[in-house]
Amino acid sequence: MEAFLMEKISAITEEERQLLSGTTLDIARYSAERDFVVSTDKVAGKVKDITVRTHTRYTDFPLHRHNYLEMMIVLGGSITHIIGDDEICLCRGDILVMNKHISHSIKRADTPDIGVNIIISDSFAESLLGELSDTVFAALASENSKVDGDGMYICFSTGSNKQIENIVENMLYELTEYASDIKILRRTVALLFDYLSLKSDKMLKAANHVSDRESERKKQILCYIKENYRNASLEEISNLMYLSSPYLSKLIKSYFGTGFKDLLLKERISRAEELFRKTTLPIGEIIHSVGYENQSYFHREFKKSRGKSPLEARREAKSEKKRA
Asked: β-pairing, 61-66 with 37-38?
């Protein structure tokens, strides 16, 4: 990589200056969602087929995912990603490809650690990966195209491979020296994917279909809540799963899009509603039986969820029985 090009790419950005001065990561720069889903609208402005931006240093990135397919190329130093239980340390020449269903965090990178992120829109990813259906990218592409697909990543170690370095250099020239012609960028990125697929037997460093582990964890979480809804706690299930409470809390949000308390509330409301319809037990006794001492809180949450009060739900159930 030419020195002047590396100098441009490694220059400290305004955001990085703010981080060095002591400010914390501004998540609003990346996401408008509470779950920290990084959006193309935020990081690429108008949605484009391809956007390339340098990785922001001097801060940890908390657990997040993207609404696009992402490729990270490390040009200097090292950058460490945490994906589930996997810790992936990318060094110079390493390339990580993640589909949009991957949840991951990134450890703080410092001045020598230079990475570029290639942001690939859904439409371009579909056409790009569609041509690679018989390659190492096949499963990743298939899952990426699904609305609720599984997370997948593939990591390549290209070392000092001159062909790869030339492709990356040409792409960065296009971004820094020219007018960023989208046609040239498309062809360059497509060429990079082609080359990685053709040389995957020599360059493949790691690949993981994280759905199996995620699927088991999701089942374990939902099963625990169903069986223990009266007295369930995040601390107890954390101990059962051998995970810390803060880490499990983040995983639950990434898996279900909501927190542990909301999942528990949803189950308790469903159980209470069933009892309102099928038994003649007093409403207060039912509320207590599903785990709540504060009846007014439960009444409020039940109405918010169902659009009616517990008493109205019971009356409706009685009317349905009479009509039957």
From this structure: parallel
